[in-house]
Write a structure and sequence with these properties.
Layout (H helix, E strand, L loop, with lengths): L1 H14 L3 H6 L4 H7 L1 H22 L9 H16 L7 E2 L16 H12 L6 E2 L4 E2 L4 H11 L3 E5 L2 H13 L3 E5 L5 E2 L3 E2 H7 L3 E5 L7 H7 L4 E7 L15 H10 L4 E6 L17 H6 L4 E5 L10 E5 L1 H9 L1 H6 L3 H13 L6 H4 L1 H7 L2 H19 L3 E13 L2 E16 L5 H9 L5 E2 L1 E3 L2 E5 L6 H13 L2
Amino acid sequence: MMTQVFDTHEKLYRALPSMDGLLAMASLQPLLQRYGKTAFKQALNQMLAAARAQIAASQQLPEWLSIDAEIFEYLADQLQASHRHSLQPVWNLTGTILHTNLGRSQQSEAAIAAVASVMRYPTPLEFELEAGKRGHRDNTVSELIHYLTGADACCVVNNNAAAVLLMLSAVATGKEVIVSRGELVEIGGAFRIPDIMRQAGCTLVEVGTTNRTHLRDYEAAITENTGAIMKVHTSNYHISGFTAAVDEASLAKLAHERGLPLLSDLGSGALTDMRRFGLKQEPTPQAMLADGVDLVSFSGDKLLGGPQSGLIVGKQLLINQLQRHPLKRALRCDKLILAALEATLRHYLNPETLDQQLPIMAKFARTEGELQSQAQRFITALAAVYAPAYQLQSIACHTQVGSGSQPDTFLSSVALAFSATNGGSILALERHFKTATRPVIGRIANDQLLLDLRGADDFDELLTDLQTLGAAL
């Protein structure tokens, strides 16, 4: 018996096409030309390995191996999957607008065009055209920030964590920095204020308690070795009840009386009033500067709606210290980030069109009525496509801002809710959505797959994708 099995395996293995034979197949030449010989041969090797594995397991050749069209389809799928870009577009319908795992802020069309332009052509990144001499890469952003916030100048780095590190390293290395215990935050990726203090060569001096800190606490902590006082905006959590904190204006008065700089880490940061969307008003850099804060750091992505970056704005003398610090070169932004950031900031010059130009603002601005109308349109178009395995309905839900911004504030929204019926499976449907050319990412709650429509980029395009996915079930 074992001899017969061995003979059967040998016959089947010999029946497999050779590598040379496959390379010469006329029907496969388009794939060879498109992907190149190296990738094509690798896919052929994987295909033959899969065929040998099937022979070993079932003593049968794969059915697709005998049909040229199916060999082509198998290889095309393999090659397409191996060449698919990891950062492919997805639909973020999770209910979190600034989703860290899905890339946070989407860029405006103007920012996209600006990035494409500086990728394609040489650009005066560090060159003053009129003077014909070397310039500084932060100059244009600095001028825009001056106009928008009143800051003397701006230093740009690759994220707000880097901004805090540079700010502390340049201003207070070897010195003590006073921070309220209630502001010793941790953000995503285990970034903790005490850790960044140590990395910057500063000694953290904690004052007050978790829920209450007073001006006298800061005053008592100042010594000859104090390098700065620092405020940290607790954007990713909220303490309520018996609380007390010192406002920036009072703290700035104390710091300046003692000859100290006051630093502020705003985290997300916002340049516009978020209350028009039903969100809480975030402290703005311009308000901090008006209160006397010397340096304010915040993110260029998140609530600003630009690319990942960190901005430090404030007094010219201190900004000059940051620009001269050795860390600045390690943390600086390239021309792509600066181009996108400049284009984003220019939208703020025209507040009347800001909500239409920036994708994040456009999503915040959608009304519940508009979302409900779209949901009914989707249900009408999709109900028969997903029946009988799935039933669709619209449900009220809440969208969160995300990325550590306003954790206890939500926007009313509407979701498409898929329920499994007649043998359908919510987990299988979720997997199916994630295998799309543009994966659809929702969330599962109460045995339903929810697609929060506030996160949709284009309703017509999303509807077409969901129709295609439904037809493929």
